[in-house]
Amino acid sequence: MSIDYSDIGRRIRYFRTSKQISQEELAETAELSVTHISHIETGNTKLSLPTIIKIANSLSVSVDELLCDSIEKSKEIYDNEVSAQMEDCSVKETRIISEIVKTTKEALRKYQ
């Protein structure tokens, strides 16, 4: 098994931007340099376990949420993300999203 640091960086950027946190703010709370955060988010550097923990704590997410693309049992994490996105949807929005998911799933399975 290999670790894709670009995927980890993408997830860090996703959580940081979704919480409207700048790279500077994340660097400060995680006690890292802005340059290091930038390199992590672009996958241009490997990061240590202590660094991953600092970033996870600063973003108020679990380490497995940052590493889920490298974890074999990550389906539950993605299921939780989908559920979180659906929490504030109206019935109409939920129905439309459900149809989109169904159609997308069928297309993915057809062309795999």
TrEMBL record:
Q: Which Pfam families match?
A: HTH_3
Q: Which Gene3D superfamilies match?
A: lambda repressor-like DNA-binding domains
* SMART domains, per the entry: HTH_XRE
Supply the CDD domains for this chain. HTH_XRE
- Entry-linked PROSITE patterns: HTH_CROC1
> A GO CC term?
cytosol
Q: Which GO terms describe its molecular function?
A: DNA binding; DNA-binding transcription factor activity
Provide the HTH cro/C1-type domain boundaries: 12-66
The UniProt keywords, alphabetically, are: DNA-binding, Transcription, Transcription regulation
Coiled coil segments of this chain:
none
Please give the name of this protein: HTH cro/C1-type domain-containing protein
